[in-house]
Design brief:
The protein has about 300 residues and is of the alpha/beta class. Helix content is about 40%, strand content about 15%. It folds into two domains: about 190 residues, Alpha-Beta Complex (Spore Coat Polysaccharide Biosynthesis Protein SpsA, Chain A); about 70 residues, no CATH class. The protein has eleven helices and nine strands. Strands 3-2-1-4-7-6-8 form a seven-stranded mixed sheet, with helices on both faces. The protein has a two-stranded antiparallel ribbon with strand order 5-9. Helix 7 runs parallel beside helix 8 and helix 9 packs antiparallel against helix 10.
């Protein structure tokens, strides 16, 4: 179908919506309708079907959007395809299982004052003042579905890194490169509904951890970060993920990362991962029984 044509004047920024979709037939209609319902009408809505095997393309075709189908390449690759096809000054990213509040685009454009190249929903107070060094130690960057970003800036940055080993953190990688190049962002309160599908990649702790480690190496190479700082950051990431790996009983993965940590007093509490799984499960049941808390899981 034809793309959406906005009724704009010369002083209104043009916005291209890029929706990435993979096996999204059950969710995609909500995302598209939330984009169509924006009070600042988009110039166009582009749906990139990233190699779906369900009816994703058919669902998209019911709406006034442009549909691009490609072989599966992952979210970064799909976003890049949409960005390259877009005509707007600003790119508004949206994952297939998320939705926007009606004023999302309008309110974010109001924050896009001179010198600001991106706007997203903040994760913590004063996010707009975060430096590259702070971002390296914690991902303050906006969820893609919460973000608008200048198309020319994305092109200057070389778009998203589509390396599949970065799946799950390709947006974090982009924000680090964004700050490293001296670009500025601003934030808004939450203006979208984050409603991940059951198979959402962020719920896969072992793959997310591996992607985080790859990202650290990539960014360190770009920024010239010394080996000691890289090792410290990797230790912090491993310590952050090991508890979730134990709770999910991904014990082999947890043990491998505990060995990589070596002797670390902060990791001692997690050495329970070296116990046999049946013993850990029995321990969990006993803890639940005596704590009276059904959420006790380790």
């Amino acid at each position: 179908m034809d793309h959406v044509t906005a009724e704009t004047t010369f002083d209104q920024p043009t916005v291209s919506v890029v929706i990435t979709a993979y096996n999204a037939a059950a969710f995609l209609h909500r995302a598209i309708e939330s984009a169509l319902g924006q009070t600042h009408r988009p110039l166009e809505i582009i749906v990139v079907d990233d190699g779906s095997t369900d009816e994703t393309a058919s669902v998209a075709a019911r709406y006034p959007v442009k549909v691009i189908r490609q072989a599966n390449g992952g979210p970064g690759s799909a976003r890049n395809t949409g960005i390259l096809a877009a005509r707007g000054e600003w790119i508004a990213l949206l994952d297939h299982d998320d939705t926007w509040f009606p004023d999302k685009t309008r309110l974010q454009l109001e924050r896009a004052t001179e010198g600001v190249s991106a706007v997203f929903s903040e994760k913590a107070p004063n996010t707009s003042e975060v430096t590259f060094e702070q971002m390296f130690w914690r991902n303050y960057g906006g969820n893609p579905s919460s973000t608008i970003i200048r198309r020319d800036v994305l092109l200057e940055l070389g778009l998203f890194d589509s390396d599949r080993s970065l799946l799950g953190v390709d947006d974090y990688n982009l924000w680090l490169r964004f700050l490293l190049q001296g670009f500025r962002f601003r934030t808004t309160p939450t203006l979208y509904a984050f409603t991940p599908a059951p198979d959402h990649y962020g719920g896969n702790e072992d793959k997310m951890l591996e992607a985080e480690l790859v990202n650290i190496d990539k960014i360190a190479a770009l920024a010239g970060i010394d080996r000691l700082e890289v090792d410290r950051r990797k230790r912090a990431v491993r310590l952050a993920y090991v508890p979730a790996l134990i709770m999910a009983r991904r014990l082999g993965v947890a043990r491998r990362h505990l060995r990589a940590l070596g002797f670390d007093r902060r990791a001692v509490r997690y050495w329970v991962a070296f116990l046999p799984a049946p013993l850990l499960n029995a321990r969990r049941r006993v803890r639940r029984l005596f704590s009276g808390d059904p959420g006790t899981t380790r």
